[in-house]
Amino acid sequence: MDFGADWCLDCRVLTTRFKQPGASALLAKYHVVKVNVGEFDRNLDVAERYVDLNTSGIPALAVLDSASGRIKVATNQGEFSSARSMSAAQVEKFLTRWL
User: Fold this and answer.
1) Is the peptide bond before 21 cis (omega within 30 degrees of 0)?
2) Where are the alpha helices (DSSP H) in 1-99?
């Protein structure tokens, strides 16, 4: 799950990283659900089930186990809150780790 908003520069950068060949190939193995949190005034009931937006900021990601639906990882420490400074390799490393 990808929690973000269209006004968020880091969210837009992460979306761009997801479209690059390496990440795109990895994401084909996921079912990505984008959740718009607006200006932290939309879909908060959904977000609070998976991430802590108070500590994560946006974009925030949650990877769920496909069989159980349990959270494998949530980026509650703001791992992607400065996505604009992340390389494609860093994004790919995250995606590979949680496949």
Assistant:
1) no
2) 9-19, 21-27, 44-50, 53-56, 88-97
pTM for this predicted structure: 0.94
Residue whose C-alpha is closest to residue 74's, from 40, 24, 35: 35
- CATH numbers and ranges of domains, the chain: 2-97 (3.40.30.10)
Digit-coded pLDDT (tens) for 50-77:
999 999 999 999 999 999 999 999 999 9
Q: Tens of pLDDT along 11-64? A: 999 999 999 999 999 999 999 999 999 999 999 999 999 999 999 999 999 999
CB neighbour class for 81 (10 Å; exposed up to 12, middle 13-18, buried from 19): middle
